[in-house]
Amino acid sequence: MNHTDIHPDTATQTASPAAWYALGVLFIAYTFSFIDRTIVSLLIEPLKADLQLSDTEVSLLHGFAFAVFYTFLGIPIARLADSYSRKRIIAVGVAVWSLATCLCGLASRFSHLFLARVGVGVGEAALSPAAYSMITDMFPRQMLGRALGIYSMGVYIGAGLAFLIGGYLISMVFTADTVYLPLVGELKPWQMVFFVVGAPGLIVAVLVMTIAEPQRTASRQTERAPLSAVFSFVRREPGTFLNHFMGFAALGLLFNAFIAWAPSLMIRQMAYTTAEAGFQIGIAILVCGSLGIVAGGWHTDRLTHKQIKDAPIRTGLLAGCWLLPVGIAMPLVTVAWLKLVLLALFFFWSAFPYAAAAAAVQMAAPPQLRAQVSALYLFCLNFIGIGLGATLVALLTDGVFADESALPYSMAITCLISAPLGIYFLFACKAPFRASIERRRQQLS
Length: 445
Known about the structure:
Blueprint: H1 17-42, H2 44-51, H3 55-72, H4 74-81, H5 86-104, H6 110-124, H7 128-138, H8 144-173, E1 179-181, E2 185-187, H9 189-198, H10 201-208, H11 227-236, H12 238-270, H13 274-305, H14 311-332, H15 336-351, H16 354-364, H17 370-401, H18 407-444
Antiparallel strand pairs: 1-2
């Protein structure tokens, strides 16, 4: 299969079967990345009991340990993705994070688990910048929102499956004090869970290598722009990119905070078992998160079709306005059915803006800089969202309230901080974004 087989047909504005196949494989990889990334959320209570950890230490495992290298390696890996084989970069990353997830299952103390989680972040840093670049080269502009929405749906399928599979595994293995794994020996039940979810990723790494590398749309396909040029470009259009980065990062902080602490919220406040919490949250993320990301991509494409140039930014604003009341109410209510309804609404609206966010970067950045500007966006989104989301809640619980039963108030306060910030930055982004889109149109005409 040659490169043109996977390039979009500009005459009919359609994507080839090879492009759809590649998108499916990338979606599977993204799904597995979020299974491996998210599973620790369901293991918070057994980790605290077995390793004698505080909420703040657990939050560092969930967020900072993963985010530190995930964010800082994203930019150099994106530079490679602008010049070298993107599918090979992704395949290596999948293998690394899958092995690191298995290594989490060998941890016997906080430092071991912290380092293994760093390894998960190192591997996952290879995926999205290269995937965004490939998808943009495979699909025509008016299909980009939907294509990125399908890819981004892996977040919610993966996170939902992490809770569902994790809850099932916990119900199966947590009845015993230890579990025996061939070639490894005796493990605690929570250690076994890491092995079960991590090992299948090695098969996905092989599957990635079956993708055809798409032709790049940049005119100078093999020349990699220097990093200084990337920062200079962003500095020339700060109203677009800095407001975009900070606005979506603030909403990402809220999502990551809630996905980290939702299981513990249900266990501590509602007296659910870990398996029950995993099932309820998993269904909410799997169904409503998936619907939200697709609906957000469709909403962006619909506005774009109407010639609304700031369509992706409007999608983010709509999500932020809904997340503010829902995110405050969900942790505080104690009526079971109402809590589940609010949980479903929260995951729908937290998913809604992120196909649009990715599409906005691809639309506003020049073709030869897309992967690297995407990496800057992911740097802000993940350093702030993943690195700080779970920890902000934990610091409020441990440092302000000094009572783990105050978790609902910590989550509500986190929403009260992050959602208004997201709304503010995205509103400030609208006019500059329209100007950036016009500049790109003139440059390419």
